[in-house]
Design goal:
Jelly Rolls, seven-stranded mixed beta sheet, 13 helices
Length: about 300
């Protein structure tokens, strides 16, 4: 069965999830977290605190049951009292026992977190259009799956059963997908980019078609027909929502698929070029260099990120 576009991109990026220790904090406190690779998701399962991300204008109140996705890797502060001087959180987490870091005796606020790093350098395809903080409120519609995953991860951290780390990592992937779904449901019109197109009934058909058959000789006319729109209306709406033209999006998607296969298969450049709809290796190489800023052979030989 063909993957949907979101699954396509996540599979291509090969996210690796790491579940960090839970935080059990008591009293008033402020903890400073350093910048990080990839993205982080945290959820408060008891109590409440403030989140302040470097570069943002105002702190965000995180209530019990809320979660937040940090997409830009910036340093941040969690606190019950933002007037307190923050303590470096790394020292507290280094003393974690049985998967739980305890601060000031614990009991008031409990937080769990996970971090995702990506095997592909082009994670900005997915996260580049998202705000630095994606705040998921406990009252969000359709948040039940997310709450279930959060509670299951909390249980895995506390029980320390055999295989618990692997279970927690898979649950973290469920949380990531669910957070993206909830963000799209509530912010589709204010967060332009290809993700927003997935919530549009007509544009999503066109995006899914390009992902399912990247080698096809798509034209704007044919994509518009699939979407049930006139050519001009489709082209204008696609540019407004996604931020690029349909055929530019198709080219970028082809190059991302090509990059993955250059790194992770034994296929030759000529075979990859043909399989993605190019009549010649030179035409493919020209398009690849325009999008990826290096030749296919340079990309293939470069050190893998992560």
């Amino acid at each position: 069965m063909a993957l949907d576009p979101l699954s396509d991109v996540l599979s291509l990026l090969r996210p690796r999830g790491y579940v960090s220790a839970g935080l059990n904090a008591g009293g008033d406190w402020a903890l400073r977290f350093p910048g990080h690779e990839g993205i982080k998701f945290n959820a408060v399962t008891r109590g409440a605190c403030w989140l302040f991300v470097d570069g943002d204008e105002a702190p965000v109140r995180i209530e019990e049951g809320d979660g937040f996705l940090l997409t830009k890797g910036r340093p941040f502060t969690l606190a019950t009292d933002l007037s307190l001087p923050p303590i470096d959180a790394r020292g507290i987490y280094a003393e974690a026992k049985d998967g739980i870091a305890t601060w000031k005796g614990g009991g008031d606020v409990f937080l769990i977190g996970s971090r995702f790093v990506f095997a592909d350098r082009h994670a900005d395809l997915l996260f580049g259009t998202l705000p630095p903080v994606v705040h998921v409120r406990e009252t969000s519609d359709n948040a039940s799956v997310l709450r279930w995953a959060i509670h299951q991860i909390t249980a895995e951290l506390r029980r320390q059963q055999p295989g618990g780390q692997l279970v927690a990592e898979h649950l973290a992937h469920i949380m990531l997908v669910q957070v993206l779904r909830l963000h799209l449901t509530s912010h589709a019109q204010t967060s332009p980019g290809w993700l927003s197109a997935l919530t549009d009934r007509q544009l999503s058909v066109a995006v899914s078609a390009m992902h399912a058959e990247p080698a096809s000789r798509w034209t704007v006319e044919e994509l518009a027909r699939r979407a049930g729109m006139s050519r001009s209306t489709f082209a204008l709406k696609f540019k407004q929502v996604v931020g690029t033209s349909p055929l530019d999006y198709l080219t970028r998607w082809r190059m991302l698929v090509a990059g993955d296969r250059l790194r992770n298969s034994d296929e030759t450049i000529a075979v990859i070029a043909t399989s993605l709809g190019y009549d010649s290796e030179s035409a493919f190489s020209t398009a690849f260099k325009r999008v990826m800023a290096c030749s296919p052979r340079q990309y293939q030989r470069a050190p893998h990120p992560g």
